[in-house]
Amino acid sequence: MNIVIKGVKASRREAPLLVIAPHSTFLDSCISYVTGFPSIIARIEDGLNPWVGRVINFTQPVYVRRDDPESRHNTIQEIIRRVKSDQDWPQILIFPEGTCTNRSCLITFKPGAFYPAVPVQPVLLRYPNKLDTVTWTWDGPGALKLLWLTMTQPTTTVEVEFLPVYVPSEYEKQNPKAFAEGVRNVMAKALAVPTADYTYDDCRVAVKAGQLGLPMTSNLITVERLRSRLGLTRIKIEDSALVKNMLSFQNRESQPIDLAEFANNLNVTVEDGSLISLFKMHLENEHLSTIDFKKYLL
Predict the structure, then answer these.
(1) Tens of pLDDT along 233-269?
(2) Residue 258: which residues within 8 A CB-CB, separation 6 or more?
(3) From the CB of residue 65, how many other CB atoms can be counted at a distance below 10 Å?
(4) What is the pLDDT of residues 59-72, one digit of tens each?
(5) Fewest beta carbons less than 10 Å away: which of 15, 107, 219, 253?
(6) How far apart are CA 36 and CA 20, in angstroms?
(7) How far is it, in rounded angstroms, from Cα 159 to Cα 3?
(8) Backbone dihedral region for residue 36 (phi beyond 0: left; psi -120 to 50: alpha; all else: beta)
């Protein structure tokens, strides 16, 4: 494996946290060697693995159960304790995306690494190989197949680039999500890739939807995100609209409404970008200017 290093790694005093992205393969573990074996955030299952568990334990990791909200809280508290401690803890290495992607964008960074409100050093990973045999995502070839394909290549190159230390503003110190977003934007710009507001939890929803045979799983996620932005997941406007229109729904096969009527029914301003996007997603074809409100609610 050929490792190309660009930039200079910051010391623990300069940046207690190393933020690594994009996370796309099990080969990303090489970053631990390059950075001097810092502590890592790892799933509890990884520590129990007979092959890599001992190596992980050597780094004095912080273990987390991704499906346990209480575990996430404890993880954040442990990160804060270590980075603000006077003891000689190693730097903490974090993959803030929380899952593997195909490197085509940077998905939402989890805010856990940013709660301590201390400077972080962004670190980029690139795999500039002619043939991609390393990308390991939730919907693709398994690890053993990828490992076999990688071993058939003459060499596999990974570029590790240390960016300048990112010092949070006063606003970002008080807002971990804004801090995470700022770091993500810097890294995306350096990688020349877009950002995407998807998370590990969205991937789980997509997988579950696929298992249930539901089509357009990515659209399901997008619809829920738009409804959340409009506040429709917190209030019962759609339920009220369903009750209000139930009689007319029974007497007709469909109920076409335009954008203005859609906004009025949901009590949202017609200029709202999220509303417009939600409306367009329910157009049966691009030549129509109305959607079936009955189908939307039911």
Answers:
(1) 666 677 777 667 666 666 666 678 888 888 888 888 8
(2) 289, 290
(3) 14
(4) 888 888 766 667 77
(5) 253
(6) 14
(7) 6
(8) left
